[in-house]
Amino acid sequence: MLLLLGCPAGSASDDAAASTTGGSGSPHDDGDESGTGTGGGEPGVLVGSFQLQLNEPKAASGEQPATPGTTTLFGKLYDGPTPQTLVWETGTELGACRLLTPRVPFCSTPCGGSAACVEDETCQDYPAAVSAGEVTVSGVATTGGETSFAMTPIANNYQPPAGTTLAYPAFAEGDEITLAAAGDMLAGFELQASGVAQLELDADELTLDPAVDVQLGWTPAGAGDSTIAVKLDISHHGGTKGMIECETEDTGSLAIPAALVSELLDLGVAGYPTIIVTRASTGSTTTAAGRVDLVVSSQ
Fold first, then answer.
1. Phi-psi category of 214—alpha, beta or left, where left has phi over 0 and alpha has psi -120 to 50?
2. Burial of residue 200 (number of CB atoms within 10 Å: 0-12, 13-18, 19+)
3. Nearest 5°: phi and psi at 159?
4. Which helix (H) or strand (E) holds 20?
5. Calpha distance 4→159 (Å, rounded)
């Protein structure tokens, strides 16, 4: 058996960064859209995103002081997809969950500093960061009481302007949140998603047993269209051997099948096993370069 510690909010930064920088490995690659854009690109190819995230308050622990809850917003856009240098192969699939194992592509001719090896003997260029002009955010509250503000890109990065602090929470569950880009290097577009509630898990620790389903519980959504994504990784810090990935409705419970847990344990355990559970509402639009997402989430 293996004791699994819950992943604290903010420790899933690698996943958030991967979603922000583009690529085609997003769980939303079905091409569903909520928003308007210029079209022309591939809806399955992610070229940028805006991440609006609730970060829960933390109680004091040992020498660590208590920290208040925060709401953060960050966006980044590119003129194409970002190369993914690790290929995840799908293995056993049971219900809402599947086992993934990594494969590192090999390119006998080095790709150089401007590209990456994404498949055997296949290099892909890194994209360039681009601007879509000023982005007006509506439905997100600031500590000053405003519910709308504009973000001007700085070095093609989108964040709330200096002097603007987002409230916590900056929206209510089910609220409509809209981002409207005026257009620049990338044509203008609009994104919409609904607010989510802070995710509250029933347990801080889980025990992995190859003969027992892992039972996850949380306070279910009361409004909006959020879904739950789960990533279970027990070898991340020792060179990833594999992971279990699940996507399910926000109903308050999920059972990860024991058969998948057994397969994952057989691949090996290393470092600090973690589980990342994310509640998210996602709106998408297709631009000439590809798909752009607005992800409103709580981890």
1. beta
2. exposed
3. -145, 160
4. helix 13-20
5. 34
- Kindly give, in sequence order, each residue whose CB lies less than 8 Å from that of residue 178, ignoring residues fewer than 6 positions away: 137, 138, 139, 190, 191, 192
Q: CB of 231 within 8 A of CB of 218?
A: no
**DSSP helix/strand/coil, 264:** helix
Spell out the residues 6+ positions from residue 229 whose beta carbon is closer than 8 angstroms to its own: 27, 245, 246, 247, 277, 278, 280
Residue-level pLDDT at 210: 94
pTM confidence score = 0.85
Q: What is the pLDDT of residue 151?
A: 98
Report in angstroms the alpha-carbon separations of 287 from 177, 190, 199.
Answer: 19, 10, 31
Give the whole-angstrom CA distance, residue 55 versus residue 167: 11
Helix (H) or strand (E) holding 205: strand 205-208
Q: What angle do CA 26, 204, 65 make, to 5 degrees?
A: 100
Rounded to whole angstroms, how far apart are CA atoms 264 and 252? 24
DSSP 55: E
Instruction: Name the amino acid, one letter, at 86.
Output: L
58 φ, ψ to 5°? -120, 130
**Intervals of the chain under pLDDT 70:** 1-41, 237-238
Q: What is the DSSP string of 121-133?
A: TEEEEPPPEE---
- Look up residue 271 and give its DSSP letter: S
Q: Return the pLDDT at 143.
A: 97
- Segment 245-294, tens digit of pLDDT: 999 999 999 999 999 999 999 998 887 788 999 999 999 999 999 999 99
